[in-house]
Structure formats: C-alpha cells, structure tokens
C-alpha cells in the first residue's frame, strides 16, 4: 500500500489590515514549497490584493521575509489563486494578476482541500 502524497492548501484571509496573519500564511506556504510539498496558496479577502503586481510590497512587517519574495517562492513551486468573488469585489480581473496567478472559486478550493493527503490551513 502506498502512502498518498501530502499537499498543503493555505487560505489567507488577511492583507495589510492584519500583517502578522498575512505574513504567516505566506511564510508557511513558501516553507512548504521549500520542503518539497505540493502547495496551493489561496488569496482571499484583503489578501487578494497580493496577487496584483506591486501590491505585496505594501505588506511590511518587522523581522519577516518580504511578502513579494514569499509569493515569488510559492509561484516557483506551487499554485497561487485569487478567490473569484474576492477579485470581483475589488475589480481584479485575469489581466490584473501576476503571471502564474489564477482566479478560481470555492468549488476548486473545496476540491483541493478534500483531496486525499491534503492538509488545509486558514490564516
């Protein structure tokens, strides 16, 4: 019997309004990629802005890795998704996001979160 491959689905619900929670989500996602885990990072609520070029730089937190670097690390080895409804509420369209960032909805999040071997975390 083979053990299913583990994956990590991380939902960030905070942006610059809660910098520690937002940075924690990005840090854990980047650490997961560095560890070789399949990572899917979901940017919801105010964190949806981090999927737009230049906006992650607005997240400044002392003693923390730079948010743009963390998102770049996740994009290099994982998936970054902006929530469909969150994007629509903010006027963010497919042409507005960073290369490699997708916009998808709750059905995709649920599918990823319920996949065999998946661990979902919400920040």
From TrEMBL:
SUPFAM superfamilies: DsrEFH-like. It holds the Pfam family DsrE. InterPro entries: DsrEFH-like, Sulphur_relay_DsrE/F-like. This is DsrE family protein. The lineage of its organism: Bacteria, Bacillati, Actinomycetota, Actinomycetes, Micrococcales.
């Amino acid at each position: 019997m083979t053990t299913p491959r583990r994956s990590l689905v991380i939902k960030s619900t905070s942006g610059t309004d809660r910098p520690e929670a937002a940075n924690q989500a990005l840090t854990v996602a980047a650490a997961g990629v560095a560890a070789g885990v399949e990572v899917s990072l979901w940017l919801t609520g105010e964190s949806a802005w981090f999927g737009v070029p230049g906006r992650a730089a607005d997240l400044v937190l002392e003693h923390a890795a730079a948010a743009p670097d963390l998102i770049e690390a996740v994009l290099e080895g994982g998936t970054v998704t902006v929530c469909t409804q969150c994007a629509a509420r903010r006027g963010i369209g497919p042409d507005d996001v960073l290369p490699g960032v997708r916009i998808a909805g709750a059905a995709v999040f649920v599918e990823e979160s319920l996949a065999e071997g998946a661990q979902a975390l919400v920040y």
